[in-house]
Amino acid sequence: MIRTTVNEIVNTIGGTVICGSGETSFSQVYQDSRLIECEGIFFAIRGDLFDGHDFVESAVEKGAVAVVVEKDFVRNRGISFLDSLGDRTTVIEVDNTVKALQLMAKDYVEKIRPVVVGVTGSTGKTTTRDMIYSICSEKFKTIKNPKNYNSNVGVPLTVFQLEEDTRVAVIEMGTDHRGEIFEIADIVRPNVAVITNIGLSHMEHFKTQKEIFLEKMDITAFMREGDCLIALDDGKFFPDDLKSYSSAYRSNLILTALIGDKNRDNFRLESISETDYGIEVIMGFRDKGGIKQEKFSIPLKGKHNGENAALAIAVAEMLGIDRDLIKSGLAKVEITGNRLEMTRSKDILIIDDSYNASPDSVKAAVDVLHSYRNNRRIAVLGDMYELGKETEKFHREVGEYTRERVDKLFSVGELGKFIDEDNNFQSIKKLSEFLKRELKAGDVVLFKASRGMSLDILVKDIKEWLGE
What we know:
Layout: E1 4-5, H1 6-9, E2 16-19, E3 25-26, E4 29-30, E5 40-43, H2 56-62, E6 64-70, H3 71-77, H4 79-85, E7 90-94, H5 97-112, E8 115-120, H6 125-136, E9 142-144, H7 154-159, E10 168-172, H8 180-188, E11 192-195, H9 209-217, E12 228-233, H10 239-248, E13 252-257, E14 267-274, E15 279-287, E16 290-298, H11 303-318, H12 323-331, E17 341-345, E18 348-352, H13 359-370, E19 376-382, H14 391-403, E20 408-412, E21 424-425, H15 428-438, E22 443-448, H16 455-465
Parallel strand pairs: 4-5, 5-6, 6-7, 8-10, 8-11, 9-10, 11-12, 12-13, 13-14, 18-22, 19-20, 19-22, 20-21
Antiparallel strand pairs: 1-3, 2-7, 14-15, 15-16, 17-18
Helix pairs in contact: 5-8, 6-11, 6-12, 13-14, 15-16
């Protein structure tokens, strides 16, 4: 982040300096007091589990040179609190710290003016983001969200990674309620928007898939003429709405076609094939002489990752990145953890896809497991959250789909019993004890569930048992 003074941001965020100096400067932005390592500004954010105002003193002790708090904070703590700070810290008072953080982030993006690639969708967002980042980094100084910073707080924190010479920002944008994508899009204003797919994630908060589609399409809400939307033309979108949205925001609609769509689109995903090291994707590129095909190798398993790669390739083409650089970027892509992360120990292959789960993503992961035809294939699946009134139905469908493609299926959790009632465990501890008796050399084991199930703890325990 470029070093900034309080005076430069106080009007932007609608704040008032009530203690300290407007000349105070900072070069980092924090909302977690535990992460403060150098001179930075701390935003006291009220969350579902914690209130950042409870950690203001800790932030000051860790070295925060400025703190942003809401107006009731000082009234509640009393003027003695300000006196205790002395000259150590500047205090800025605002109506709402989340909104203040967002306004500051929006202003900062406008100052740096990178090309912003926004990525959203029901599944595959993070992997697609990682692919785009890896490719763009071959040519440009590029940033992306750290870890899972894809919320209306995480995205503002992400953009403060920008430096004066940053050319591309790859921004994953998540949502579980209507209006969140619009809120995030207003901050970063994507030039290139990517929608990976429209699935069943967060159905608890959306009445229909059409509503999910409309939420995701808000990524285009602030597009300007010449900006573009990239999506898979797989028949699962609502094409009339897709085109009308694109027209309304004057974006140049780019569709990446799946196999079989031969005559319409600039980019075509011709085929995806499994290899020993991952997958190979053949893309078709339309030019004056017709369609030219190119092969790309990706060190990841799964047809769905071939589709993610197609989106990343299309983004790179729109940004003018040479195909040799696209190939080298994909070949060295590093995927954020707990997403089809594979480790082998004592001749047992662990597929850790425990970060999150929806019916579509579980089926995609099961397809990867199914491809290991020479091994005993074991699926360990847990609850999928936020699926709404048809939760039981979706779990039963996943169970049926999985049983047809694996050798052993075990479930965990209250909802997991609808995946497989005969082999259901109500605690991770009991499941872990069972697996340590069950697993043997040659097995391939998939772990997948919603994040709230904490299945990563089970994966860690099994890996430690195997000597990882």
